[in-house]
Design goal:
Distance between the termini: 34 Å
Number of strands: 4
CATH superfamily of the largest domain: H-NOX domain
Order of helices and strands: HHHHHHEEHEE
Helix content: 40-55%
Mean pLDDT: 96
Bound molecules: protoporphyrin IX containing FE
Oligomer: single chain
Strand order of the largest sheet: 1-2-4-3
Number of helices: 7
Structural class: alpha+beta
């Protein structure tokens, strides 16, 4: 998993709670590198799971609630570091439609070892979209936060429903723009 995901999570803990809280979480997670992440390095996904386990314990929130909140925060970070990748998109459904063949493709060029999920549009109208998400990491709650923050970025309001499919590691998002 790319370092920017870890540095963003730590930034969120520092900003929303406190630097001391972020330090405590890192210490309790017993990470091999003691939380010394750089944005362009790559680190085991297991570190993210460890950090989440400590956060669940400390906050009483579920891992998915935490991932959702983190998704909202992460979009802001990704958007400010990589705003250029959003330049060709004109609205929330348009950006989601091009996540896989444009935005994440540009990301992959910048970071060849990035472990990106796969998105495919199953159906689309002017105001609705059925978007399939596949990732062995099953970070659908992170995707939900990223989508809601992206909608906000375009000044749109969306309604969403997430459905786990029978296909392993695969979810469907039914999205309606209001
Ligand atoms: C500014 C636009 C975006 C940029 C630059 C961006 C870039 C990235 C990067 C760098 C990663 C980390 C890859 C790794 O860990 O190796 C990532 C992961 C991810 N992205 Fe995006 N992303 C953007 C928008 C979105 C949006 C709107 C969604 C919502 C559907 C999304 C869904 C995800 C998910 C769910 C992951 C976690 C990996 C996984 O699920 O397996 N991204 N993205």
């Amino acid at each position: 998993m790319l370092g920017i995901v870890f540095t963003s999570l730590i930034d969120m803990l520092e900003e929303k709670v406190s630097p001391e809280f972020a330090d405590d979480v890192i210490v309790e997670a017993q990470l091999e590198n003691d939380g010394a992440y750089t944005a362009i390095g790559y680190y085991p996904f297991e570190d993210m799971q460890r950090l989440l386990t400590v956060l669940v314990d400390k906050t009483g929130k579920s891992a998915n609630e935490l991932l959702y909140d983190f998704g909202i925060f992460l979009f802001g970070k990704l958007g400010s570091v990589h705003g250029d990748v959003l330049a060709n998109t004109s609205g929330i459904l348009d950006m989601l439609a091009h996540l896989d063949d444009d935005i994440h493709v540009q990301v992959k060029k910048l970071y060849p070892d990035a472990d990106l999920p796969r998105f495919s549009v199953l159906s689309r109208t002017d105001t609705t979209m059925k978007l399939q998400y596949y990732s062995e990491r099953e970070l659908f709650a992170l995707a939900e936060g990223l989508m809601d923050a992206a909608a906000d970025f375009y000044g749109a309001k969306i309604q969403r429903e997430t459905v786990k499919t029978d296909i392993p590691y695969t979810y469907e998002f039914n999205i309606t723009v209001q």
